[in-house]
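Example for tutorial group B:
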């Protein structure tokens, strides 16, 4: 397909002819230089956009590009080579490609091809070898190319595994997953994972499974989890918090979904008895992992004294346990009268009901206490011999064990249900808070209202004062802040760092942690639009847990998008105003420049002729020049008068002095003022003698009629008639001027009264397009209306209506 030639600043450029390709509609098109920038005036600024249009039309495309043209690697290439590549392609273009073919050459062979002129012409090749294609640069670019291709192949492999439900992992490349928990070993585990990832050159993740028991963790354990996840992010991992019913199955499911090849878990630090009763997560991972390697990292155990002290610490509050004991006592007392009708084994059901109620109402601990006390009370009061813990019949031992075991199982299940309900309620609250924020931000019309709404939601949700800063010039300025927040220069410097680097800073972060607030950048895909600051915890208060930090980051993300939307709306409105102003200025210049220059040139020419050749001109020639100069001066005077009238109308400075005026006088004065221009043009006047006077400003309405007659003269053929009529319609006086010209195009009827608007007709028609706009403004200032219409048989009718009601005479 021949290329399309484009002339740009005297240079002939050759570009892809997309229209020719679309017209030919091949099955396959070969388009070279995907990152090429098209010549100005082309349909698309980039060639990859031409390729996207071909793909949308159903045409397959083969194309090529170098690794340095990928947008995500632009800064990396500039750092390696010292050359900033300006022709880049968004990464999504490569991600959407059906297939990638890697063309790789050793650096020496590529440099040889450059020297032989097989890549560039000799002059360009010499510069490229010297500046860009040095051996070290080529080696680094070659590695980047291989890595990018390997990432694509890995994505294809994982997609293949997912579509065919292959459990994996396929260890084509190493991926590590470190399991974070509330254990003191978590931070050491994260550091070990980082070292192993460096050795294997592998991608790695840090995962914390949030089970139902997460709500029972102490503040210190919450902080330990948060520190471990934050440390993993600092060391280059992708941290993930995943809700799940059990730790080991959630970890294995995530590992298989993400093709994890190695798991890192901490050595159990609890007693062997605890592992036998509750099970060890490490053992479950080894059994369930299959082909996934499980690496166990050891560490120092918690001192025995600390563990004993913690083991003897009874849970609180005490009231729940007291209520559980009172419930068992009540069942014991109420069951005494039933001994006459029920066997002792049937009374066990009442104690079992008490255990279930304690589990549902008060939790696991009170339920276990109810089970123990129920067994003891049943043995002491209902099993012979009574009032003793001795058992005469061994079959009751089975009843004791069954009551105790069923009580424990029921209490555990009920407690897990309560904990899961609490976790679901917490997640529902977070989702509801995000929904409320999104709804309120979407409803906010102004930027100030939006910022106040965002700050109020942050303060209500996190119970901490907040501040929002937006850029003003070269500095950040506080837009809205809590009543007790006052930022000094140090705090503003921390906020400025967070804004310029698009990273969190301040309290609770690794950057400037001595600040009083935690500053989050309000970032979008287009850049950072501001900073959200949240007051740090007071002395003795704990920092935000990981789920609260994630919620705060979601608030910041939602707020950033809303702020960007408001700013873009404001810019669009401002751009519309500028566009309208520019359009008005252009119309003014286009209209006035010609209409001002024409009479000035005529006047100057006539005066010059009189000055230079006056002695040689006869009386007729001199009179003709003087008449011509006078007519052009009057034309110039009307033009300037129209501009001044429009200025007064728009500025509200035009004063209307109403006095009763006869319609026939108005029409006669207008025709007399244009007598010279009308000449022999036939004019029909139909003004009834019995029309009542109309209260108007005589000079202003006279100007309107003159403008209407002048418009009829311009847009009707010479010799065609002009009709002027007046009549009374209800309480209005109707005046109309009609001609037999070419009429008004239907699409122009809605704009005929706009400023500087002129109907484009064949031939040269002078004027600025202000006459009708001024006339409509004057008529509306009198309380009337004015409109235009096309006549049957050709021509235009301009009609104005003025009120006939008596009005006080203006001073």
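The residue assignment follows.
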């Amino acid at each position: 397909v021949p290329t399309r030639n484009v002339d740009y600043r005297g240079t002939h450029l050759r570009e892809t002819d997309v229209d020719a390709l679309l017209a030919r509609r091949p099955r396959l098109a070969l388009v070279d230089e995907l990152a090429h920038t098209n010549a100005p005036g082309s349909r698309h600024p980039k060639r990859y956009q031409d390729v996207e249009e071909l793909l949308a039309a159903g045409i397959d495309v083969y194309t090529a590009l170098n690794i340095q043209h990928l947008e995500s690697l632009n800064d990396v290439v500039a750092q390696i080579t010292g050359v900033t590549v300006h022709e880049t392609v968004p990464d999504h273009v490569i991600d959407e490609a059906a297939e990638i073919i890697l063309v790789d050459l050793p650096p020496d062979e590529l440099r040889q091809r450059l020297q032989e002129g097989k890549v560039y012409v000799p002059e360009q090749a010499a510069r490229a070898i010297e500046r860009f294609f040095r051996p070290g640069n080529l080696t680094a670019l070659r590695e980047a190319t291989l890595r990018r291709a390997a990432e694509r192949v890995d994505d294809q492999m994982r997609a293949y595994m997912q579509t065919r439900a292959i459990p994996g992992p396929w260890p084509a490349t190493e991926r590590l997953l470190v399991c974070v928990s509330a254990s003191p070993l978590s931070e050491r585990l994260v550091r070990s994972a980082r070292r192993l990832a460096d050795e294997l050159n592998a991608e790695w993740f840090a995962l914390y499974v949030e089970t139902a028991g997460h709500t029972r963790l102490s503040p210190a354990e919450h902080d330990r989890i948060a520190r471990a996840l934050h440390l993993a992010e600092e060391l280059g991992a992708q941290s993930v918090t995943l809700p799940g019913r059990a730790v080991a199955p959630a970890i294995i499911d995530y590992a298989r979904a993400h093709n994890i090849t190695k798991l890192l878990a901490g050595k159990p630090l609890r007693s062997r008895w605890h592992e036998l009763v509750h099970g060890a997560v490490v053992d479950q991972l080894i059994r369930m992992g299959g082909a996934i390697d499980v690496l166990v990292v050891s560490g120092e155990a918690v001192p025995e004294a600390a563990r004993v002290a913690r083991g003897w610490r009874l849970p609180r509050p005490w009231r729940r346990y007291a209520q559980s004991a009172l419930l068992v006592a009540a069942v014991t007392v109420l069951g005494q009268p039933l001994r006459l009708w029920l066997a002792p084994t049937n009374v066990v059901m009442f104690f079992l009901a008490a255990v279930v109620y304690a589990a549902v109402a008060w939790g696991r601990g009170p339920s276990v206490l109810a089970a123990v006390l129920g067994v003891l009370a049943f043995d002491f009061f209902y099993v012979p011999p009574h009032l003793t813990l001795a058992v005469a019949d061994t079959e009751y031992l089975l009843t004791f064990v069954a009551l105790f075991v069923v009580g424990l199982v029921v209490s555990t299940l009920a407690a897990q249900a309560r904990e899961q309900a609490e976790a679901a309620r917490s997640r529902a609250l977070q989702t509801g808070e995000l929904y409320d924020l999104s709804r309120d931000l979407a409803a906010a019309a102004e930027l100030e209202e939006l910022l106040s709404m965002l700050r109020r939601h942050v303060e209500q949700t996190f119970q901490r004062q907040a501040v929002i800063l937006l850029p003003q010039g070269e500095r950040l300025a506080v837009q809205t802040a809590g009543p007790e927040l006052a930022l000094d220069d140090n705090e503003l410097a921390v906020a400025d760092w967070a804004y310029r680097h698009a990273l969190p800073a301040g309290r609770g972060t690794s950057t400037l942690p001595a600040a009083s607030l935690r500053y989050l950048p309000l970032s979008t895909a287009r850049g950072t639009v501001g900073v959200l600051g949240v007051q740090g915890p007071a002395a003795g208060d704990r920092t935000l847990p990981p789920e609260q930090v994630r919620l705060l980051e979601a608030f910041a993300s939602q707020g950033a998008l809303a702020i960007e939307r408001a700013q873009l709306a404001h810019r669009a409105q401002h751009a519309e105003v500028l566009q309208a102003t520019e359009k008005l200025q252009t119309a003014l210049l286009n209209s006035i420049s010609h209409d001002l220059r024409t009479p000035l040139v005529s006047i100057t020419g006539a005066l010059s002729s009189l000055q230079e050749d006056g002695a040689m001109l006869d009386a007729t020639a001199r009179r003709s020049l003087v008449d011509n100069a006078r007519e052009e001066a009057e034309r110039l005077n009307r033009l300037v008068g129209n501009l001044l009238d429009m200025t007064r109308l728009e500025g509200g400075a035009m004063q209307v002095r109403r006095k009763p005026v006869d319609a026939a006088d108005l029409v006669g004065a207008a025709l007399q003022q244009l007598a010279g221009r009308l000449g022999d043009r036939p004019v029909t006047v139909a003004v009834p003698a019995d029309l009542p006077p109309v209260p108007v400003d005589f000079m202003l309405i006279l100007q309107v009629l003159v403008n209407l007659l002048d418009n009829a003269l311009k847009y009707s053929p010479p010799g065609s008639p002009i009709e002027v009529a007046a009549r009374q319609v209800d309480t209005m006086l109707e005046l109309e001027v009609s001609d037999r010209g070419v009429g008004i195009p239907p699409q122009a009827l809605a704009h005929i009264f706009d400023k500087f608007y002129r109907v484009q007709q064949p031939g040269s028609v002078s004027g600025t397009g202000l006459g009708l706009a001024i006339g409509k403004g004057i008529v509306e200032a009198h309380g009337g209306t004015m409109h235009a219409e096309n006549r049957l048989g050709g021509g235009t009718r301009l009609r104005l209506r003025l009120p006939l009601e008596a009005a006080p005479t203006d001073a």
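The CA atoms of residues 187 and 227 lie 8 Å apart. Compare this with the pattern of hydrophobic and polar residues in the output above.
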